[in-house]
Design a protein that fits this description.
Layout lengths: L5 H27 L1 H21 L8 H25 L19 H17 L5 H26 L13 E3 L5 E3 L3 H8 L4 H4 L2 H24 L3 E3 L3 E5 H26 L14 H5 L8 H29 L14 H23 L5
Antiparallel strand pairs: 1-2, 3-4
Helix pairs in contact: 1-2, 2-3, 2-5, 3-4, 3-5, 4-5, 5-12, 8-9, 8-11, 8-12, 9-11, 11-12
Length: 361
Amino acid sequence: MNQLSSSSKHSMLTRVLTSIALLAVLVPCLVFGDWAFFALSIPLSFLAIHELLQAPGQRKYPWYVRLVVFLFLLFFVYGTFLLNYLGEGSPFDGTTGFYLQKLFFPILFVVLYFVSLATISVLSTKVTLSDMTYLFAIGLFLALGLQGMLYVRYFPNSTGLLESAGSIVPVEGTGVWTYGNYFSQYYSSHQLNPTYASCLLFFFLLLGTWCSDVGAYFVGVLFGRHPMSPRVSPHKTWEGFFGGMAFSMAVSLAFAALFEYAFQMPLVPGLLQFAPSPLLSSMGVLGGQSWVFLVLLSLLMPIVGNIGGFLFSLVKRHYGIKDYGWLFPGHGGIIDRFDSILTNALMFSLVLALLSGGSPL
């Protein structure tokens, strides 16, 4: 076992205290959802984009570059709410609270974002090809991760699978439910508050991601011997990675099982639950064995989260910075703290979008 230095002990204490303070703000906003979480997401998005622009240097990019990046990335994050409001009714007045039924990948605006950056790089001597590719690729990834966080929190508030609203699915002991109202009918039949029940999926994401980080940190500090990628993240070890994976899967699956069996609150009724799912069975997905997707997500969270962490660490190494920001002592900035969550939120969103469309993945 490795011996802890005084600096390591102080770092651990700082990280723990900062995490407690962060959770004190984050947890109530997640639980209450709706406007509370939406309001929290706005400063998080602004600060994350600001950190992205600051990474190459505080005075690297002129004002017009910052304006273009802010406008496009914020549109990628919140454009789905705007389009739903204009075309399909307000996403803010659903019967079960705020909802997001679809992912938003506006190909036209992705192209416009690229063309805008390319034009600036041609006309401005302050923006190089490297800057353009960084702002496009990492910026787009960041925005989609932020949108993914909103999607994961609000998707379970949806009434059901709107694309199949005309179909029906038999549910044992409860008669026949419609696809288009499956979620709301489940909450109603079990006398659950949909706002509170719908937050469990995001807590599952947080637990799986952060327990992976916590487990990897402590196992790595105590037992780490073999570095994963010294060039990108010299302190991460294979021992820490596998220790974090085991801890993450144990905690996340235990969390899902506790709420499903003790309180009749699956993460997403019919889509992510341990019990056989009549909804997935009627859609022809794995014979209704929804537990497979719970285990798959628990397995993927430590892997995908680490990929996201390495990606954003690679950017830091490229620009020679220690952290993206200073908001969280011991953790850095918004991107430092949420890099793995952003990546996992995007992965969750893609899995949910495929499942709700009837795809067996």
